[in-house]
Amino acid sequence: MNRPMLILLSAVPVLLAGCTRPGPAVHATPPVARAALVKSVEEQVPQGIPITGTVHAKETATISAQVPATITQVLVHAGDRVYAGEVLVRLDNAAMHAGLNRALAAQQAVEMQQQAAATNASLAKSTLHRYEILKQQNSVSPQEFDVVQKHAQAAELQVQALNAQASEARAAVAAARTQLGYTELRSPYAGTVTARMADPGTLATPGMPILQVDRDGPLQMYATVDESLIGSVKLGMQMPVTVDGVSQTMSGRVAEIVPAADPASRSFLLKLDLPHRPDLRPGMYATAQFPGAPRSVILAPQSAVIQRGSLSYVYALDANGVAQLRYVTLGHVHGKNVVVLSGLAAGEQLVNNPGDRDLAGRRIEAQ
Questions:
Q1: pLDDT digits over 281-308, tens only?
Q2: Quick one: which of 182, 163, 203 has its CA closest to 99?
Q3: Model pTM score
Q4: Helix 142-181 vs helix 94-136: angle between axes, to the nearest 10 degrees?
């Protein structure tokens, strides 16, 4: 190999080494976004003990028959709105109509007898008055006067007896009308039909439930409390209540404490008044938080928390003010804040109302 070629080959490694020499480090600047900031805080809050229950109407009526009869019509279905006095169910009333007709006929017969007895008593009274004049004139014998006097007294007693029979007949007519009225079952108040338990053709017996009607107005939560907690419950106590299907937490007030415990579960029944809400309906599942001993918790504003399905996360700022996506585990709602069980420490800065923006890795400037 000639000398020029050796010089060229020996220069190649030098050139390659020069090409791979590292240059000065370049630091990328994170993009900037503007957003409102809030902080997580640590507070002492009462430890809530969850008690579960169901939403009920404050007044519920079970519509049932008072006389044995066959159901001929059920005029409503579950979910129908009804007004006070509306006919909901009709029963077979043939026997009641017959009984009323008999009572009316008996009353009419007694009234006719009353008229005849009143006429006879009036005549006997007039005759007695004439005989009293004749007696003063010594124109009748004592025996004749006694006969006329006794006849007048008997006529008056007959009138009194028929008056009593007439009262009895009127009472029988009233009872028959009442029995006939029992064949039309009416709503006791305005409300909603919540259950229909019988259909036409069914033999209704006294006390057999046919319909259930919930009265319009505020609702209550029926909750069971263990006997170990009942000593802490007071009438008028306020408890936060959450209801499945209702977005906001509401406040329930203890309106009634059933004094006897259920011997099977050793628990007491509480009735909590709930505020009126159009999206609150009887039968919904509800949970109340019974206040317990205070404990230290981390609170974050609800406006800073993003929900995506079953996941919850926040944008928390690091020491350089860069937003980091942080998954968190949430507890119960406390006013406008929510308890953070894990994923966040007190005093951390959070992006408020992040919306749908992807802020991870961006340096946040406070608005």
A1: 888 899 888 877 778 889 999 999 999 8
A2: 182
A3: 0.56
A4: 160
